[in-house]
Amino acid sequence: MIIELILVGIFIGIMSGFFGIGGGMILVPVLLALGFEIKDAIGISIVQMVFSSIFGSYLNHKKGSLIIGEGIFVGLGGFAGGYIGGYVTQFIADAVLQFTFFSLILFALFRLFFSKNHEDDAQTRSLHKGLLFGIGLAIGIFSITLGIGGSIILTPLLVGLLHYPIKKAVSAGLFFVVFSSIAGLISRLTTGTIDFSNGLVVAVASLVGVALGIWLKDHVTSKNHKMALLVLYVFALGMLVKKIWF
What we know:
With about 250 residues, the chain is an all-alpha fold. The protein has one domain (about 1-245). It has helices spanning about 1-20, 25-35, 40-65, 70-90, 95-115, 130-145, 150-160, 165-190, 195-215, 220-245.
């Protein structure tokens, strides 16, 4: 099982760096397929997200693709929401968690598919700081409850509603995961619902993948990057449908 978790960690790291996701939208279904229970899978996912999001955001900032700015306010909202979400998980039935996860991925797929491509920052919109905090709060609660970082929801909103260029939206999405995942980890630790032994194996292995994923992101066009995101969402959706119905 250790070898499988290391390979999964590297793969999830590549996905995290390339798509700007915490990795939970892929990792949770993969862990379910390996035989983990949904709540154990969520705990492992949160540990992995802390490692990959911090390292990935550092690399993105170093390369100039992460402009912190307004992301701080969304991130602080995500921190508060992630802290709340970490407590909520233990009180929600597994079936409810799975169907909510399914609905969020379906929403993200729809939102991203109908968004237009923006190649620069000229058309990027701005929102009130309080509203940004509120968006982060809501996403944080939903995402950490499901063991995902939240960028699956945030990135399509940044592209579709605020006209962010796709690559900067991806970097901002991963930065958001730093806040939501750390908060989720803190709150889950107080309930004793984190599988640290397996979580650290996946998390450390993911760091290798993150660096490779970010390198790949910087070497593809925005159009191809968006198409790859759509394929990713369809893949995650298919895995979840298989788990729930079959």
